[in-house]
Amino acid sequence: MSSIRSDAIIVGAGLAGLVTASELITAGKRVTIVEQEPAASLGGQAWWSFGGLFLVDSPEQRRLGVHDSPELARQDWFGSADFDREEDAWPRKWAEAYLDFAAAEKRAWLHSLGVRFFPVVGWAERGGYTANGHGNSVPRFHIVWGTGPGVLAPFLRILDDGIARGLVMMLHRHRVDELITSDGSVVGVRGSVLVDDDAARGASSSRQVAGHFELEAQAVIVTSGGIGGNHDLVRANWPERLGSPPATMLSGVPAHVDGRMLGISESAGAHLINGDRMWHYTEGITNWDPVWPSHGIRILPGPSSLWLDATGRRLPVPLFPGFDTLGTLEHLRTTGYDHSWFVLTQKIIEKEFALSGSEQNPDLTDKNLRLLAKRVAPGAPGPVEAFKSKGVDFAVARTLPELIESMQALSPAGVLDGAQVESEVRGRDREMANDFTKDAQINAIRGARRYRGDRLIRVATPHRLLDAKAGPLIAVKLHVLTRKSLGGIETNLQGQAMDAQGRAIPGLYAAGEASGFGGGGMHGYRSLEGTFLGGCLFSGRQAGRAVAARL
Q1: How far apart are the first and last CA of the chain?
Q2: Which of 192, 220, 299, 530 is positioned for an S-S bond with 141, CB 3.0–4.6 A?
Q3: Which pLDDT tens digit goes with each residue over 24-48?
């Protein structure tokens, strides 16, 4: 039994935990960080991320002719969140505070820490409904130069400085099993010391127990993430509004994203809310070089691929690639199948396919200008071509009959209707032959190319799928990919965990995905994308500053 006394204990060494720690270190406080994974996984999910951040009216937007404003961002956020529950009181306040942060201090604060941005702003989650409905009205997806590792870098530097100054005790392989309470306050943690493990970053590590520990502090901050690596917990929380949960899913996060600390926090009195709000992707593909179990990668698609359900029927308006993540998920769950299809051309994959994740974008992650220049040159990025040639979910053919035959080989027997696929492809191509069209997706593609960023590196020149010069034809089998929890521990704007009666629990705080990125669900039902890392930054900063002020 070990016993260490510090000012604050942080449970979880992902981005939110590191930001929280940085604020406490800067204030000269003593911090103990406990993390069940080996040191190789320091930084958690953020290290694997594409590094997209939501900013409002930024210099990058203005340089590209994008006119954004706090008022427009609020319209988009609340139109997407659709807050409709009594327990949304704190999430609403967090949403307002986060929007203020994203429109004002966020970029300058990150810039002061050395964070820089790729000059082309992405347009994720475009919506496609009315002005007050879901989606980003303008491009707001700012990619950090260095992707996820670039986001983590300044906070890792502060952590190293804190360790050197004797302010930080970093305890890897320490799994919290219980929050210690006394007279209604949380005063520490106790748990298991796991055996040493040399597992690589993200790989599954041993859960064998080598000993036990107990730690005390004036504050405990839970920053342990969500449930995306625990498919049983995902299914248990799956909402009826999204239909039945898939029988098979890919994991967009490592297995250690297991949700354990949510139940442990609830046992100590924390109020969990909005557990049925979650964010999973429908463009998942099987990683040909997996790191963790059921490892999937998300395609970040441009708008041109033809999206078909498992039977070959085209998805309804406005469920085009990159427009409405959860709307697409909800529709696909009505089809009775766990997969769907993109049909596209080599010309589209070269311009429009990006793969989510730091490891799939070596040019941006490694700040390699020579590699970066290839994004505007002919040919698909190397990681995309690797998936096309090695991935089990890709079919490539010169003719449509050959492509349909390959798709059927990747489908359960009798599911894919080849005649339906041919009808959808040829019908779409007839519309493309005219400057005028009733096809909403074609109009959306043409509209997207009015934005300079999309025209430069994101949206292919409109063309017929059966144009031989654009070939070969490609089909991609898509799976549901687990990712984020939008609900979690209810917190006030200082990051204090609330109990079921709406009272702050002395000594207990939460930040990041464990708190629904703030308040227990500041996104509501839907995210605008680029908001997850930003939510970790903001909620971690809020909690760290609040704890530092109270100590």
Answers
A1: 26
A2: 530
A3: 999 999 999 999 999 999 999 999 9
Residue 415 has what pLDDT?
A: 98
**Which tokens in the block code for residue 243?**
């239909």
Where the chain has pLDDT below 50, the residues are 1-2
Between CA 515 and CA 505 the distance in angstroms is: 14
* Structure-token pair, residue 257: 């994203």
371-384 in b/e form (b: 16+ CB < 10 A) is bbeebeeeebbebb
Phi, psi of 25 (to 5 degrees): -65, -45
Whole-number Å distance between alpha carbons of 546 and 507: 11
Q: How far apart are CA 538 and CA 100, in angstroms?
A: 11
Phi and psi of 52, rounded to 5°? -85, 135
Q: 520, 274 in Cβ contact below 8 A?
A: yes
- Say if CB 215 and CB 176 are below 8 A apart: no
Structure tokens at 520: 């227990």
Give the per-residue pLDDT at 372.
82
Q: What is the pLDDT of residues 431-461, one digit of tens each?
A: 998 899 999 999 999 999 999 999 998 999 9
Give me the phi and psi of 95, to 5 degrees please: -60, -45
- In the prediction, which pLDDT does 379 show? 77
Interatomic CA distance for residues 295 and 282, integer angstroms: 14
pLDDT score recorded for residue 4: 62
- Residue-level pLDDT at 5: 77
Name the residue type at position 318: P
CB distance 157 to 20 below 8 Å: no
Instruction: Tell which residue, 442, 477, 439, 361, has the closest CA to residue 122.
Output: 361
**Burial classification of residue 469, based on how many CB atoms lie within 10 Å of its CB (0-12 exposed, 13-18 middle, 19 or more buried):** exposed
**Nearest CA to 320 among 303, 337, 295, 339?**
303
DSSP string, 86-147: GGGHHHHHHHHHHHHHHHTHHHHHHHHTT--B-SSPB------S-TTSSS-SS--EEEBTTH
The pLDDT of residue 96 is 98
Tokens 């654009």, located at residue: 470
Instruction: Say what the pLDDT of residue 1 is.
Output: 38
Please name the amino acid found at residue 73: A
Contact 521, 88 (CB under 8 A): yes
Q: Report the C-alpha gap between 107 and 492 in whole angstroms.
A: 24
Does pTM top 0.85 for this prediction?
A: yes
Asked whether the CA dihedral 329, 418, 435, 453 is positive or negative, the reply is: positive
What is the SS3 string spanning 382-438?
A: HHHHHHHHHCCCEEEECCHHHHHHHHHHCCCCCCCCHHHHHHHHHHHHHHHCCCCCC
Residue 341: name the closest of 483, 468, 479, 467 by CA: 479
- Percent helix, strand, coil in the chain, to 5, is 35, 25, 40
Phi and psi of 204, rounded to 5°? -65, 140
